[in-house]
Amino acid sequence: MPIFMLTVALLAIIIHVALIKQRSAKKIVEITLLYLLVISVGAGALISGFMHVFNGPATAKIIGWQPGSPFQYEVGVADMAFGLIGVLCIFFRGSFWLAAIIANGVFLLGCMIGHFRSLAESGNLAAYNIGPNIIIADLILPLLLIGLYIVYQKLRN
Q1: Which single residue of 1, 22, 81, 91 has CA 20 to 30 Å from 43?
Q2: Among 144, 150, 137, CA closest to 98
Q3: Within the chain, what is the greatest distance between any pair of CA atoms?
Q4: How far apart, in Å, are the Cα atoms of 108 and each of 18, 100, 137, 143, 146?
């Protein structure tokens, strides 16, 4: 799912940038941040949250977890909260974006550590524990958002 959401975000970015008349580095970085926050973080986390909460056993299986843990519900609710924050980035900018990036990044990087621990402790090689989707969603995307936000701030000044 993360690769799909990133692909959708990238297509939206390309279309949006192609349609604007006055392109600047600042505008392109802003559009990129907006779509990554709304689609990859927002919609992606909402979908992930719904999967954990409403399809828990199947979701646990693709992650390599034991189904039935009450913590899966809590992870799902946290995902939905971050998803809502990501979607709200359409309406709020500036420091709200920074807060969304930091909060979501801390959560996802923490999840990445959990996935690596699961790999080290139990050899969990499930696709959604340590596969490319997880590496992109939990490691690369948060770092990319932090980097883009720093560039965006420098271009604004």
Answers
A1: 22
A2: 150
A3: 53
A4: 31, 12, 7, 10, 13
DSSP state of 20: -
Give residue-wise pLDDT tens across range 120-131.
999 999 888 888
Q: Judge whether 134 and 115 are in contact, CB under 8 Å.
A: yes
DSSP three-state, residue 91: coil
Q: Taking the CA atoms of the chain, what radius of gyration do you get in angstroms?
A: 16
What is the domain count for the chain? 1
| Residue 154 or residue 134, greater confidence | 154
Cβ atoms < 10 Å from Cβ of 76:
21
Give the position of tokens 């359409």. Answer: 90
Using the 8-state DSSP alphabet, how is residue 137 labeled?
Answer: I
- What is the end-to-end Cα distance of the chain in Å, rounded? 36
Residue 145 neighbours by CB distance under 10 Å: 24
Tens of pLDDT, residue by residue over 31-67, are 999 999 999 999 999 999 999 999 989 988 888 888 8
Domain extent for 10: 2-156
